[in-house]
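Annotators were shown the component list below and the corresponding predicted structure, then asked to write short factual statements about the assembly.
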Amino acid sequence: MKIGSIFTLAIKSIMLNKSRSFLTMLGVIIGVGSVVLLTSIGTGLQAYVADQFASLGTNILYVVPGNPFGNGGFSGGGGAQTAIESSKPTLKRTYYNQVIRNNRDLIKDGAITSVNVAEAKYSKTTKKVTLYGITNSYQTVYNSPAAKGRWFTQTEEDKADRIVLLGPKIATELFGQVDPINKFFLLNGQSYKIIGVLKEKGGGFGGPSFDNYVYIPIETNFKYFNSELINSFVFEVRDKSQIKDAKLAIEKTIGKSLKSDEFTVFDQTQLLSTINSIIGMLTIGLGGISAISLLVGGIGIMNIMLVSVTERTREIGLRKALGATPNLILAQFLIEAALLSVIGGLIGLLIAYLGSLALQPYFPAKVTMGAVILSFGVSTIVGLVFGVAPAKRAAKLSPIEALRYE
Amino acid sequence: MLLNLKHVSKNYKIGDTVIRALDNISLGVNEKEFLAIMGPSGSGKSTFLQVASMLAEPTDGEIFLNGIEVSSYNEIQRAHLRNKQIGFIFQSFNLLARTSALENVLMPLFYAGIRTDSDHAINKAKEMLERVGLGDRMNNTPAQLSGGQQQRVAIARALINDPTVIFADEPTGNLDSKSGEDIKKILKDLNKEGKTIIMVTHEEDVAAIAKRQIVFKDGKVLSDHKS
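Structure shown to annotators:
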């Protein structure tokens, strides 16, 4: 007896009860569909975050005040800079200059960032905006050229000129179709000239976006917004392999002026792994919750198979009378349960795949092979495990009793 | 001797009481015989059929089929034996619903390990259906057939593996007299062609088509006549 012919038998009996078979599968369809879709969202998000970090450059070291990875944990959000809130200035421009001067062999360039908020007004539009006070070197370190207009020069930065660059999103929000270059607008009531609009960076999913910032020379920020607070130093290391050495060098240089717990030097991998572990936990959590529906689906299959065995008692008796061995009956019902589960799993997979395609324009969903194999395997096992009890019951029926069953 | 039962007993337990359904029966059936087993309900005639057709194990005694002792066979061996050597005709036909006559007839071939989608198998099933006069109803499901036609499908199914013995349990019990006559004729013809048939019935006129009538009472053979 070939196992293939038992498969044909099982498929036939599934097809004899199409609507019932479909309803039985529904639990598995929903279970597999939601597990795969949710994990695809999670892994897509991780890949997206990694991409975003890569677009910022992979050989970048950050220096921030305090210890963001300390007891409280990293607070997440849009960027490393906004995560830190401190009232008194810890980082000073002189430290930055020392690092650049002392480590020319390791560090190619650097930038200073200082964040503020202000109210921007153009014509009738008023918006609360994030001011990003930066040094002129930001454009190269962050690979952020001006799409329109130009960047400010070192001289303009040193003179604290009242000029700004806009992120592309905030430019559209404030100016609409109007070309903002060389226009004037108000920041906290004072007039500023727009000299450029930055290239789109994308990102900022679920947090602030670089495209939404108003970029001003750091000295202008210090002078007109009454803040000496530096959020971070950013250093571009000459080569990726020098990251560790550069980190030590920076720690040593700044360590001369600050205590070791007053500042932290970290690279992207550290930040990325923190974010990844958060997303990973969320993905596992969501996947776990939807896995419960897979379990419920399995119980549904067992329930229907038990009903089916009772309903088909006479059929089982007849098959046994005509020469079916208990093992063949067992195989028939077990394969039937497994097939219900596997077909349900395939449909669920298809739905998850289509769902992730539908989400693509809005959300970086990504169906992974791992999730596919895992959910498919789990649904097969669910079918087999929950099919055993009904199939055993069928196999144990005595042909005489079964034939007499009304 | 084709089928030989020696001192066969079968006990049933209902609660704490043991019921002796077959009480030390010894019976021999020769090739090409046509037996009618009669008797009131509870006489043991159905139990005899179950034990002799290998559906049930005897409590005591031995059964020989073609000289081979088969009463000690295990469940799997008995399943194979039923498949190859026994044909079953039931009172309530026992056809699979929503399954064509042809596929119903093919079922014993399936359990004999023969590919049921092969030309050989399908031709054989068609031949059996033609033999019972249903050559034109092969693709009909049981619901589309009359009772007599359903029983003829069941007979075709019983014949397909060319069994040594055919067991029929009240084959006309669920049929009107016209259909009953058709079935009686088919059984008679089969016996003429050389098939050994053992039939349980409580109707005198049905028993009359058999060449040997055995009456059971209280698990024992009351009479054994050849006509």
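Statements collected:
1. Helices of chain B lie at 45-52, 75-85, 101-111, 119-131, 147-159, 177-192, 204-207.
2. The beta strands of chain B are 3-14, 17-29, 34-38, 60-65, 68-69, 86-89, 165-169, 196-200, 212-217, 220-226.
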